[in-house]
Design a protein that fits this description.
With about 270 residues, the protein is mainly alpha-helical. The protein contains eight helices and six strands, in the order ααβββααααβββαα. The chain has helices spanning about 5-25, 35-60, 80-105, 115-140, 145-170, 175-195, 220-240, 240-255; strands at about 65, 75, 80, 200-205, 210-215, 215-220. The strands form three sheets. Strands 1-4 form a two-stranded antiparallel ribbon. Strand 2 and strand 3 (about 80) form a beta hairpin. Helix 5 (about 145-170) packs parallel to helix 7 and helix 6 (about 175-195) packs antiparallel against helix 7 (about 220-240). It is globular and about 55 Å long.
């Protein structure tokens, strides 16, 4: 199987099915809102922009590579064209599934302010500490931890920001959030294992922990799908939550009112 045929079978086909379901829901009066479509489009753009330099670094440093006979031969930087298509299709597939579940499952009750703030601060701090530990691993040059550390150092800072903004909001929508995340991780990990087994791409054993799920899938690949889908699911859920925008407005207003310490009109 080529990379292009892999995309057609494992991503295009389910995406078409989800799109048809979305169209049928729209005919019943449950169409995604313009804001929802905008959030999905924005996440596609961000996924490509944020992942491109990171993915190019991994391929250039031979953390993974592709069988030249399984790709079209069109590369942008170090990465084959099919990989960029993967970014787009994954985001669209996960995003549409999330939108369908958010329409069907209303959020739970809001948490009291103090516990909500503690949850946001604690979860963001944990993500940042893990990202920092990953940077230590990279600085130490421990080769078996390279791939895992690159994943976590790249993905956890934006996840920490999402948690700081609205970990409590994600918990309110936990039914849709966790269901979408679990389905996406399990499905894409299984598809990835098939691709690795078929030789479409290969993970460098020297830069991997060597922990295999099901005897085929490096644990880093499952973590990769966990964090990338978490970015999509959390980002879209927060974008569609009115409370998120209220918090941004309050933060912006507080920053505008804050005096410039030591500056004109400030206090020395």
């Amino acid at each position: 199987m080529t990379y292009a045929s892999f995309l057609a079978v494992f991503l295009v086909v389910p995406l078409v099915l989800v799109a048809l379901f979305t169209r049928a829901e729209a005919r019943r009066g449950r169409a995604p809102t313009p804001l929802a479509w905008g959030a999905l489009a924005l996440h596609v753009l961000v996924a490509v922009a944020y992942t491109t330099p990171w993915d190019n670094h991994l391929v250039a440093s031979r953390v993974w590579w592709y069988d030249p006979a399984r790709v079209l031969g069109v590369t942008i930087g170090w990465v084959p064209l099919e990989e960029y298509v993967f970014f787009v299709l994954q985001t669209m597939l996960t995003g549409l599934v999330l939108l369908a579940l958010l329409r069907r499952w209303p959020p739970g009750p809001a948490a009291p302010p103090s516990p909500a703030i503690r949850l946001r601060a604690a979860s963001a701090a944990v993500a940042l500490v893990a990202a920092g530990a990953s940077l230590v691993v990279l600085a130490a040059g421990w080769r078996p931890g390279t791939y895992m550390a690159l994943i976590l150092a790249w993905a956890l800072p934006p996840i920490a920001l999402q948690l700081a903004v609205g970990a409590d909001l994600l918990w309110r929508h936990r039914r849709a959030v966790l269901t979408t995340l679990a389905a996406a991780v399990l499905y894409l990990s299984a598809a990835d294992a098939y691709a690795i087994h078929g030789g479409i791409w290969t993970i460098d054993p020297a830069q991997s922990l060597g922990l295999m799920l099901g005897g085929t899938l490096p644990i880093e690949e499952a973590v990769f799908f966990l964090v990338t889908n978490a970015l999509i699911v959390a980002g879209m859920t927060l974008a569609l939550s009115p409370e998120t925008w209220t918090r941004w407005r309050r933060t912006a207003s507080a920053l505008r009112r804050r005096p410039d310490v030591g500056g004109v009109g400030g206090r020395a």
